[in-house]
Amino acid sequence: MAQEEIYLSTDVEADGPIPGPHSMLSFASAAYRADKTLIGTFSANLETLPDANGHPDTMKWWATQPKAWAACRTDCEAPEAAMQRYVAWIRTLPGKPVFVGYPAGYDFLFVYWYLMRFVGESPFSHSALDIKTFAMALMKSDYRAATKRNMPKRWFDKLPHTHVALDDAIEQGALFCNMLKER
Asked: What's the CA gap between 136 and 156, in Å, rounded?
């Protein structure tokens, strides 16, 4: 019998558009069953990479988000330790992990890069499920039209989107599960 899929809604906060020259500042995953049962969460704030710098445009945006900035700069830990803890946590989950992001192209890029650099493996293999692409398929729309403002209101729970990684991972995971129910 196939193992149950566990959907890890994952959100990343970073100081630039790509890992390496820029750092992942914070990330979180909310582990959901398909029925929208939240079975666990993981979050970490990371020390910046030694030779990385914040991108000027991203840092300008961060200046408009003082609460989120403060949240992601508290209790920072070494990326090596955080990523190893993350993989250990994923291994405790009762099923096959599926990375879910909005947009997956951004969040997965950072998480995968950090996993490969600091752990040497990815429990997600090379793949991620993108909520926006899934919305496009469900809405039978063009990709650019599959934005949150065009999505049916019934897909959204009353959860905050704060740019604090754990808040956003939980919010986006609930959105994904509501969409999954309609498929």
From this structure: 16
pLDDT in tens, 110-148: 999 999 999 999 999 999 999 999 999 999 999 999 999
Closest among 5, 75, 41, 55 to 165, alpha carbons compared = 41
Assign residue 120 a region: left if phi > 0, alpha if psi is -120 to 50, beta otherwise? left
Average pLDDT of every residue of the chain: 97
- The pTM for the full model equals 0.96
Q: How far is CA 44 from the centre of its chain?
A: 12
Q: Are 75 and 69 in contact (CB under 8 A)?
A: no
Query: All domains of the chain, ordered by start, with CATH?
Result: 5-182 (3.30.420.10)
Residue 14 φ then ψ, to 5°? -135, 170
Is 96 a residue whose pLDDT tops 80? yes
Task: Calculate what percentage of the chain has a pLDDT beyond 70.
Answer: 99
Q: How far apart are alpha carbons 114 and 19 in whole angstroms?
A: 8
What pLDDT sits at residue 2?
A: 75
Instruction: Read off φ and ψ for residue 6, nearest 5 degrees.
Output: -110, 125
H or E element: which one contains 118?
Answer: helix 104-118
Distance CA 10, CA 90 (A): 12
